[in-house]
Amino acid sequence: MLTVDKLNKTYKTGDKALTDVSFTVPKGQVVGLIGPSGAGKSTLIRCINRLVEPTSGSVRLNDTEISRLSVGELRRARRRIGMIFQEYALVERLTVMENVLSGRLGYVPFWRSFLRKFPGDDIAKAYRLLDRVGLMAHADKRADALSGGQRQRVGIARALEQDPELMLIDEPTASLDPKTSRQIMRLLVEICAESSLPAIINIHDVVLAQQFTDRIIGLQAGQVVFDGSPNELTEAVLTQIYGEEDWTAMRRGAAEDAEAEAEAHRETEKLMSAL
Amino acid sequence: MTTTPTTQTPTPVWHPRTPKARITLWFFWLLTVALFVYCWNLMTANTMWVFVYDAPQAASDLFNRAFPPRWTYMERLWKPLWDTINIATLGTLLGIMMAVPLAFLAASNTTPSKVFLRPFALFCIVTSRSINSLIWALLLVSILGPGLLAGILAIAFRSIGFIGKLLYEAIEETEVSQVEAITATGASQAQILNYGIVPQVLPAFYGISVFRWDINIRESAILGLVGAGGIGSQLQASMNVLAWPQVMVILVVILGTVVVSEWVSAWVRKAVI
What we know:
The complex is a heterodimer of chains A (275) and B (273).
Chain A: E1 2-10, E2 16-25, E3 30-34, H1 41-48, E4 56-61, E5 64-65, H2 71-78, E6 81-84, H3 96-101, H4 110-114, H5 120-132, H6 148-161, E7 166-170, H7 178-194, E8 199-202, H8 206-212, E9 215-220, E10 223-228, H9 235-242, H10 247-274
Parallel strand pairs in A: 3-8, 3-9, 6-7, 7-8
Antiparallel strand pairs in A: 1-2, 1-4, 4-5, 9-10
Helix pairs in contact in A: 5-6, 6-7
Chain B: H1 19-45, H2 49-53, H3 55-66, H4 78-106, H5 117-130, H6 133-144, H7 148-172, H8 176-184, H9 189-223, H10 231-240, H11 244-272
């Protein structure tokens, strides 16, 4: 369980990115964090694993008060927090396997990671995860040889290799096409359900957020302005978060996308069974 | 025809530069031309034209004396040539060993101390760069006495600045997101360097090192002129006794070596990217 209490972040420039943000994520819940650009979504998830140092407030994961840890303790806490990034943030010139194994860096001594002599269990787990995300055949390819969707799958496997107790997911679909976005979101939600992992997903695509998450938190200028289930996200609320816009038209467009995808899926299955 | 509007809006005029920028540019060219004219006068004032007028004759005279090259002299060149290649290679390796830690200290994103160590590292790099290999060799020959060691160290000291500067710039240009991702896994500082930064700068590192080795082959060929060993000593000895056919052979050998080293360097750089 993750508890965020009265979290504040003011950057050195004086920009107030977060104001008194509080919420609790129970085990197994997938939370969609929505809001316009600059609302503080990225800052918020980076304050949780302290890639960005919060100004005040507390973050507690299970029984660990993350906001008060020393450098060494923070390293140990970070290994239990998996993070997935918008531009995948894979080490481009390392292989897929090395990227996945880098999820174990917090657990192995330097010489092992330097010589790439990871323990057998770690390697077995990495293969299992690559199989789970459907990249078994690409294990020894260099990360920069993969497509966007494949790279994001490597990112997911790397985060899971950490044995996480929490997933922080920053705009996982922003660099992907609509179809791949859906596949990635589906995979993320399935994986979190499999090990009842709590997750926070930063996402600017409201429709995807509503379709795939259990709960939505709306952030506007660093403050929580909405916290509730996806179907409570009415037009009035969206207008409050993002400003005036024709929301129904957007949803219709997305429904058509989903319909087209399902149609294409049926067609493929028809073709496959005909063979 | 339809009616044409009587009050047509004037076609908008667009200039790629503001009037101020145009005047500045014009003055820049004016100054450049003035400087050229001034330098030309300076140069010709101190030239003894009698020597220039018979330059073609003097050159052809020198060439005739150097021709045919004394190819038998080759057998005395293999050893100094090998020395030259060794000076360049060992000097480059030594330079790399000293430049890599300096580059990590000098790069603003990896330096452990911005106030103290970074300026120190930058100072070492600038010092090394501001002194030419030949001058390093002069200094070292007077300290260590003539020989290969002075040459190797001269090459190494000059390489530190070159490799250090280019490498620390490459380190500063690494993508932050990859480093952030490795940090988020709970990796230690050493692991972040090993997984987040080193893979990103490795191609640049190979490219820079081989490029410097290629330059060092050329530079070590003349170090002998000041007594730091290699084929340059032979060159100087031959020039001192006006043995032009031998000088010709040496120049051909240097040219051949440089061509080969350039080819190797280009090949390696292509292979690592």
